[in-house]
Amino acid sequence: MAFITRDNFEVCSNTLQATALDVTRLAASSLPPDLAFHRSVDQSLAHDLDSLSTRVLGLANRIIQLSSKDNAANFGRLEDEEDVVDEFSRNIVDAMEGMLERTDGALDEFLGRKKPPAVQAPSTLPDSHHNSEAKTRALPRGRLEPTITHASHLPKPQLRFRYLRPNTDESPYIPVALIAHKWCAKVPLGYIFEDNSSRSEESIQNEEDEEEEKKRRILHPYYYEVMHPTYPAHIFDPPSNPVRPSSLDASPSRSYTFVANSKDFLSFANTLSSVQELAVDLEHHSYRSYRGFLALMQISTRQEDFIIDLLAPDIREGLRQRKGKSPSETADEKMANEAGEIIARVFADPSVVKVFHGADSDIVWLQQDFNIFVVGLFDTFHASKILEFPKHSLAKLLETYCDFVPDKRYQLADWRIRPLPIEMLTYAQSDTHFLLYIYDRLRLALVDKAISQFPSDSSPGSTPTITDSRTDPYTLIRDVLARSARTALRLYEVEAYDALGGSGSGGWDTLARKWNKVALTASGGFDYNSSEGNGTTSVLVAVYRAVHRWREDVAREEDESTRYVLPTHHLFLIAERPPSSASDLVSLFDRAGGGSGVVPPVLRRRMGELVSAVKSAIDSVAVILKRSTELEAAETATGKVSVDISATVQHTRSNEIVEVISTDIESRLWSMPASSSSVASHSVLFSSAQAKASVLRETSAYTAAHSTLLGNTSRIIAPRFLKPAMMPNTAVRFRDIAERIHRALVIAPVVSLPTAVSTVETTISNSTLEPSSVVPSDSGRSTPPCEPVSQIEIPFVPQHQRQSHLSLQAYAPMEDDTIVVVGQAGARQRKRKREKNRGMTSQLRSGSGATVGDQEAGVGAFDYSTVPNLLDEVSERDRTNENDRGKKKPRQISRPAMQSNIRAGPRDQREVKSGNKTHAFK
After folding, report:
1. Alpha helices of 769-873 — where are they, by DSSP H?
2. Strand pairing partners for 897?
């Protein structure tokens, strides 16, 4: 094998390019287009093609790996044709571009175009306040050992706790009823003091709403102290040259004190009582506990680091501030209780600055486990936000200011392990070891930024005074303290399980939204009575909620996290593929079934309970769908028995005229009738209303059985046998839709009914009504059932149904607009109109003259049918005069088409000649 040198490089390059070009041409021209057919016919050809494809893919993967040797993790592996097509840009184009760029750079350096700098700059800039050489550590890679992330063999340490809140206790957290003493109080415990300054815009800039703020003011025992802080002067006086602590490596050069007994705990508490600043961090465990608990506390002063074991029963019980604690029986318990009171007082003392980073969870955990509240908080996270750093994590601050890269893999380690490995202790110490130094550097940066934005004559070392914010160099520090105060006001809340709505951080609706399972959410448009398909969606949702509830109950009972009982992705897998037996459930956890291959231990012990819960959910949906089908069948049968509206419309026309005139028409589309007699037996809009009334009984009578807007609404209304937890309140939803429709409707204007029109209409109605519909009055004359009102609403009547009130017909015959008459019926229609007009004129002349005379003597009758309506759709054809329709239009002589100045050819030469042309219809 010849090596490529400078002398033969050009020859090798030309040979390589020519060979690649020949192979490409051969592959493009020699292979038939129906290669798949030849593969199916010739097995040897298929075998050779597969072998060649495997070889080509292997060579391509090898070339990609060599071309991107320094960045191979960003490129995938080509396995088949789909990978070549879909990942061509990422795996091949990007790799080639990177290789060509490195080649250009190497050639420029080889040819002397690119020269190294005269002075080599270090990889990281040294600290200007530190003379020693900066030391950095490479970011560790890879995963931790499984025994570090989850020590499954460990017994539960919470079993040794002397107090543990029951998981089934969902009573709200009220600190005033729990703590025995309020340290450093300005307002006594149990009192609420409010003034105008507590509601200033600066103090509530991050509050959610008024109710949330009111809740904090009532429940938080240190609300007044947090909102009216008395910060020490040294917080506004950062050192001009902060001293960076000693660096940490695999073997810490600066020793720490591990506190695991009552004696060391009391000594540590006495040390804290004499400091002005301290850095605090906590390690929490939540995987093998339902509510979670604190496992470690790290506190650093300017001189020493402390790591407190919070799993020790005496230390944990001593830190817990609670009324009615049992008296100390041993010396260790007495020392632990005394140390706990000192620490609680230090955390509530505003003169001692507590430096946290991202204290939102830490504040809540201290309240949950120990009823300890923090006053005088400085959160470095808020400082990095105000300084507009690109990243705000503690790891980024450590790397920026201390040249230290923490091993963040231990952030999710199992902190129940005892004894702790040296790597975990180093990580825990690093969280607070540099935090006070970062606190000093951030304050200097805040002062410098404030001075650059708002020039001031004040020096950073002067004592702060109440000045204008535009000239205050400490205004940004005050902003950080104000934001930190809002964080210190966070309260621990006991989350109750919402089976109906699925709300809360762990609710079924919240979980479905987080995983983008829209069909399983509360607002996903699902209805248990949906008639779509065969109820598959109903089964999915019912199984999902049943399994979610089972997981929640088992987690509370076993004191395990819901993730440990049943991982979330397995929860959705079971909902999508409901198992019918224990073997089916186990198969879902196989890798072939989409699982991880491991059945959770709790599920392995209680597999039968989960299968029973799934079956119960499926059976409940089956019962609901069966009864809904029966209701639909009964509704259909009732609709067949009901009288057809087209057959009875002639008998009810006279009654409809009386009801339109004499009944007070309401402005709503659906009204609440007083009795079922006002509900029609059948209508085009509402289908069978009597069947609905018989089923719903006490439900709203304005709900239609079927509509184009809402579909089959009979399934939306919850029958009596539906469980409230499984059926949303759709009656309110339908009522809201009805209100929206009412607001969108435009009712015709209300006009006064003339007296003459009322007289004529009453006369017409009395002459056409049946005797049973006329009610005799006291005076002996017959009157309609209801007297006409003075103001009525005139509904919109289509133009083809309108008639003059002078006509003696009770109701004009309805013309069906949907029937299209084919043919020339214009002459017949005009003849019928002339005969009709002639008959109406003769009837009016032979009729009673008294009525006409009274009408002429009285107020002139107004014919509403002759007035055009805005809703009428009048076309241009209807606007044409009837006399003009009979006139013959001048014949339009068609001329041959002209193109430029050349006349078209004869017609017999322009038409297509075909033997299939027929002249049967002209």
Report:
1. 826-846, 849-857
2. none
